[in-house]
Design brief:
By secondary structure, the chain is an alpha/beta fold. It is 43% helix and 18% strand. Strands 5-2-1-6-7-8 form a six-stranded parallel sheet. Helix 6 (187-207) packs parallel to helix 10 (264-270) and helix 8 (218-237) crosses helix 11 (278-292). Its EC number is 1.1.1.169.
Length: 317
């Protein structure tokens, strides 16, 4: 199957990074649509998206179409789904009206139940469980900057479509100089990513510290380790297989980012009135812990502290 029509839904840090690289690599021959909002969209329409990666600065990436209406985009061969988790249900419902049975949906967002949540809205298409490793953010409207991470994607098969041939998708990413790895069981990687982003996200927000500051503080580092061990216990009850050193390896990943790096959750909390992914991390861990009988005292402590600091009387459980 040829992948000639690509739609990037959510052109924030992650969508802007991968979508921008695709636009820059495929100057012609492919239709690439960007779905964005507000001032960011206005700048993309006027000047294109400016992308600064760890190796290349000032890439001007002009998509075929930039819009805030998903229905304006032609039905794609590939969706890069890069929205925040709190927008997932609404966006997936919109996608259900602009999809066919061969459309590939590659979700590049945080969470361990993203496939199931997409399938609640999408009865057709090929949805590939995935995780992504990149530290990016919107530096200003129209500009996306990479601050760390490998810029890599890992994905695996849709259980509804075991016959799916991933070769064209992997070739597409190779041509765009994007590292994409296919794994027959992507869930250990998805859970390991969740372990990293949830633990550091919760502790960074609770302590109001950067990644480097958390790593340098013995108490904060112990709290991060505690949350990771709680996530590990839940995942093992669910049958996810990890190497014995997964917690140490996850802690060490923070060294791949500049010390001043803030998690996306932290940046969102700092923006008055902006929605954030606290429930995806703290709320989800507490709910899964209760469901599977796994104690989660460190997560409960950190999430309660965050809720208190934000003026919320009690935390979700």
């Amino acid at each position: 199957m040829a992948i000639n029509n690509i739609c990037v839904v959510g052109v924030g840090g992650v969508g802007g990074y991968f979508g921008g690289l695709m636009v820059h690599s495929f100057a012609s021959g492919k239709q690439i649509s960007f779905i964005a909002r507000g001032a960011h969209l206005a700048q993309i329409r006027e000047r294109g998206l400016m992308l600064n990666t760890s190796s290349r600065q000032g890439l001007v990436c002009t998509p075929t179409l930039a819009t805030d209406r998903l229905e304006d985009a032609p039905t794609p061969d590939l969706y890069l789904l890069c929205v925040k988790s709190y927008d997932l249900a609404d966006v997936a419902a919109q996608m259900s009206r602009n999809i066919n049975e061969k459309t590939i949906v590659l979700p590049l967002l945080n969470g361990v139940d993203i496939y199931e949540r997409i399938r609640e809205e999408l009865a057709t298409g090929i949805v590939l469980p995935a995780c992504v490793y990149v530290g990016t953010h919107i530096a200003q409207p129209g500009v996306v900057t990479q601050k760390g991470g490998d810029g890599a994607i890992l994905c695996g098969p849709d259980s509804r479509h075991p016959e799916f041939d991933a070769a064209p998708l992997l070739k597409l990413f190779e041509q765009a100089q994007i590292q994409c790895t296919w794994n027959r069981d992507p869930y250990p990687a998805i859970w390991e990513k969740f372990m990293f982003i949830a633990a550091f996200g919760l502790v960074c927000v609770a302590s109001d510290n950067t990644l480097g500051e958390v790593m340098a503080d013995a108490e904060a580092l112990a709290q991060t380790r505690g949350i990771m061990e709680e996530i590990l216990a839940i995942a093992r009850v669910k049958g996810v297989n990890f190497a014995d050193d997964v917690v140490e390896r996850s802690l060490a990943k923070a060294g791949n980012f500049p010390p001043e790096t803030k998690t996306s959750y932290h940046r969102d909390v700092e923006t008055p009135g902006k929605r954030n992914e606290g429930d995806l991390f703290g709320g989800a861990i507490l709910r899964m812990g209760e469901e599977f009988g796994v104690p989660t005292p460190v997560t409960r402590q950190m999430y309660a502290m965050i809720q208190k600091n934000r003026g919320i009387s009690s935390c979700a459980s």
